[in-house]
Amino acid sequence: MPPAALDPIEVLSRGTVDVVVRAELEQKLAAFARGLRGPLRVKAGFDPTRPDLHLGHVVLLQKLRQFQQLGHTIVFLIGDTTAMVGDPTGQNDLRPRLSREEVLAAAETYQAQAFKVLDRDATEVRWNGEWLGKLSSLEFIELAAKTTVARIMERDDFEKRWSERRPIYQHELLYPLLQGYDSVALDADLELGGTDQLFNLNVGRDLMPRYGKPAQSVLTVPLLEGTDARVVDGRVVGKKMSKSADNYIGITEAPLVMFRKCMQIDDEVIWRYFELLSRRSTAELRELRAATTDPREPKRLFAREMVARFHDDEAAALAEREFASVYLGEGLPADIPEVSVAADGDTLWLPKALVAARLASSTSDGRRQLTDGWVEVDGARVTDPKHALPRGAYLLRVGSKNRKFARVTVA
Fold this sequence. Notes:
Blueprint: H1 8-13, E1 19-20, H2 22-33, E2 41-46, H3 55-69, E3 73-78, H4 82-85, H5 100-114, E4 123-127, H6 129-132, H7 137-144, H8 149-152, H9 156-163, H10 170-186, E5 190-194, H11 198-210, E6 217-221, E7 230-232, E8 235-237, H12 255-263, H13 270-277, H14 282-291, H15 296-310, H16 313-327, E9 338-341, E10 347-349, H17 350-356, H18 363-371, E11 375-377, E12 380-381, E13 388-390, E14 392-398, E15 404-410
Parallel strand pairs: 2-3, 2-5, 3-4, 5-6, 9-15
Antiparallel strand pairs: 1-6, 7-8, 10-13, 11-12, 11-14, 14-15
């Protein structure tokens, strides 16, 4: 569906958490609207540590796209230098260091996927190696001298690790300064990021006046919860969407897979997905929620919108029909994944086959699915967690309402 007409105030209000400082940013936007200044330079940095994007990443990319549609200049900053430094944001352990080759490979894929959301022709792509790679030792010391250790230690993650007497590496303390210097180099008027980036974004805001430049405004967006999230006491609870937690919807996944995963979202949580990701206006969403009687209907509409957006309308319609046939009826998907697994002797333990076919996250998860009665082998339910498959080919199915299939050959 086409995006609804955008209102600057709604862009600031919907799907945002922190706005620093709101009145200041509203003045910048109003001045642009009246022709008293040029478009804002809206910056967001992406350290390409993983190449695959999911809907959690789209929350930030969509906010950038909204500013782009309002006529502002979007600076898509690739942190080729900062990615190799490593930012432990939101993690309690030091993130693994990456090689330059790994970063460049991930960055190439990252851009290709990001431009499924952003307008490539209207996006300024920059790499922070352009300036960070040229900083002399003296310039780097001057940068470090523009803030204090006490200020850097205000970051929640550092403060917690310090109190627990866990290590904090010196390069980690420098990361916020490097990210902040990006804003100095780019003359950013506004920087966007997830809520876990608020401290780093504000360091950039602090640094800019020390280099004789106006302080950037800061805006954060929520970290989207995964498909396994639930509403507890009126609020969404669950791990953030991630591939490692296997609660993600990838934007390059097959249409039927995307559709199925969207239909798995909790009946109440779907409204948070609508708020953060849908192109429908707030008024449209309010009307849809008031008119909903079947909880599957909003999930169907959301699934159609996402598949159409990242594939096309035809793929969305086909995915919906196939979902209805396979998961609501007794049909089989048109494209069942196939995997060949070596036997352990003459047989293969079924939970191991489920893991190999990506139908279970672990053998213990496979055992649980078997004992819960969620597994079928060639159409027959199997509940024995010790069941083993002789050499041969099998059609495996797990789940009940939201079924997943795989063809497994025990070689």
